[in-house]
Structures are given as structure tokens and as C-alpha cells.
Specification:
Helix content is 32%, strand content 12%. With 292 residues, the protein is of the alpha/beta class.
């Protein structure tokens, strides 16, 4: 059955058609998968999709997966995420309408984790689908909430500077079981406050370019909820943050475009000398620290 039947179920749900024949062959669990930047068809899940056990299906969510003004991207992050949210929400609701007793796993990677996490946030406590039927698995989530005051995702750390790349801060999941998986060097989901730990922030930028934003993605194997930070040797040597109660730039400057722009330009200039040369030359590909 797998994705082919999932497509039939989704199409039936979107058309408002109840299909008893399809319902009789429902998977016991459906995994909804959202890829990251430049992965509009969630190909990052292909390896594990090929080995899913009987009774577990998957549905890939197609969307633009774009972050303009990233070079060559036609669609802004905000519009791309909104497109993904709408598509994922329709697909999940259609499947639940056809297979109301089946469990649902919503998973996203990177930009796809924004999409998946925002849908999980909206579904939590809504009553539209019972919370005990839903779980989430997010990899490299830019909106990941920091634990015990530790670093969260970059969208909770830096303020909005570029139109169309809105930093929306953290969000919760209520009673839903959601597992956040994040590499320690991945500056997308583990972004140190640059005011209190500039070298730690630089390490996250370096890690993003040097492979630490990659994950062993297998949402069917993940259980429970909570936050997992995978320890790694740093790319840029750094220590603990200054023991000062200084808020993040997001908390200080978001909504004040001039101060936000000046602050982000200052962080970009300050980390340049400590980054590996290959990373320094690619900062124009890091849209959260715009070069101009």
C-alpha cells in the first residue's frame, strides 16, 4: 500500500468522499513527511521509507521548499512554509477522516520541521484529531525551544531582518508527544545567543555548512517526547556563555528593523574572523545573516 494508497486516501478526503473500501485497508500508522530546503518531495525520507514495517505507510508532502532571497530560490520562506502548512494540514485531516482509528506521525526536517511543528502546534488541543493518535518527530527545527535556558533554534534567537524570512520565535505542542532531535553543532536548531556566547554562535554557523545539519532520519523508530541534543566536538572552539541574564537578540530587537539590522550585521562581522575560510566564503548562502 504505502504512499500509493496514502495518495488515494488523501484525494478522497480532499474531495469530501468517504471510501469504505479504502478505510478497510487503512494503515495502522501513517507518517507524514516534510523535507527541508531544496527538497520539495521529501526525498530525505526515502531510505527509511523502503524499510517500513507492514501496517506503516507514508505520505510525502510536496511544497516549494524555498528560502528566497537564497540564490536561485523563487519563493520566500514565509510563503513556502505557508504552502507546506496548508498542504500538510489538508492531508492529515483527509487521512484521519478516512481512517479515524489510525495513528498519525508528523515529521519534518529543517524548513520542513517549521511546517510540521507549526501544524502540530495548531492541532494540539484543538479536538479535531485526538491528541493520543498524533505524535511528531522534528529534525533540525529552527523554532526549537531551548531547554532550561539553553540555546533554541535560530528563529528563536535572531530577529527578523529580511522581508519574507520572519523569525517567529518558539512554539509549544501542548499535550502532543513531539520529539525534537538536534545536533549540538547545528546552528539551525541549536543557536547560541551571540551576545553572551559569540564563539558558540559561530560554531553553529560553521556546523551548518560542515555537515552537522544532517540527520539519521527514521521517524518510525522514534518514540516518546521531549528534546534530544546530540553531543558533538565543536567546529569552532567555544566555552559556556557569559553568566549574565541577557536576552536573545530576538527578544531584544525583533520588531525594531533598524536595531535588528544593525545587530545582525555586527554579529556577521564579528564571527567572520573565527570561521573556517571555506565557511566564511559561503556566508551569502546563510539567509539568516544577510550579507547586504
Amino acid at each position: 500500500m504505502r504512499a500509493a494508497l496514502a495518495g488515494v486516501l488523501v484525494a478522497a478526503g480532499l474531495a469530501g468522499i468517504s471510501s469504505p473500501a479504502a478505510a478497510a485497508t487503512c494503515d495502522t500508522k501513517m507518517i507524514f513527511e516534510v523535507g527541508g530546503h531544496l527538497d520539495p518531495d521529501a526525498n530525505v525520507y526515502d531510505r527509511t521509507n523502503a524499510t517500513l514495517p507492514p501496517g506503516v505507510g507514508f505520505t510525502k508532502i510536496h511544497y516549494s521548499a524555498s528560502i528566497a532571497p537564497y540564490p536561485g530560490d523563487p519563493v520566500s520562506l514565509d510563503d513556502s512554509v505557508a504552502e507546506g502548512i496548508a498542504t500538510l494540514d489538508r492531508a492529515v485531516r483527509a487521512f484521519h477522516a478516512t481512517c479515524p482509528g489510525s495513528r498519525i506521525t508528523i515529521s519534518g526536517y529543517s524548513q520542513g520541521a517549521i511546517v510540521a511543528g507549526d501544524v502540530l502546534h495548531a492541532l494540539s488541543g484543538s479536538g479535531d484529531i485526538p491528541d493520543d493518535l498524533i505524535n511528531g518527530v522534528l529534525y533540525g527545527d529552527p523554532r526549537r525551544t531551548g531547554v532550561n535556558g539553553g540555546p533554541g533554534g535560530i528563529a528563536t534567537n535572531l530577529p527578523t531582518v529580511v522581508p519574507g524570512i520572519t523569525m517567529k520565535g518558539p512554539r509549544g505542542f501542548g499535550g502532543l508527544r513531539v520529539k525534537e532531535i538536534c545536533n549540538q553543532n547545528d546552528g539551525i536548531c541549536h543557536s547560541e545567543n551571540p551576545i553572551t556566547n559569540l564563539l558558540g554562535f559561530a560554531n553553529g554557523v560553521a556546523g551548518y555548512f560542515l555537515g552537522d545539519h544532517a540527520y539519521d532520519i527514521d521517524p518510525d523508530a522514534v518514540t516518546g517526547s521531549g528534546d534530544v541534543v546530540i553531543a558533538q566536538l565543536p567546529r569552532v572552539p567555544y566555552g559556556p556563555p557569559l553568566p549574565l541574564p541577557i536576552p536573545t537578540p530576538y527578544e531584544l530587537f525583533n520588531g525594531d528593523h533598524r536595531r535588528a539590522t544593525d545587530a545582525v550585521a555586527g554579529y556577521r562581522a564579528a564571527i567572520g574572523p573565527v570561521l573556517p575560510p571555506a565557511v566564511r566564503d559561503r556566508l551569502h548562502e546563510f539567509p539568516w545573516l544577510p550579507v547586504s
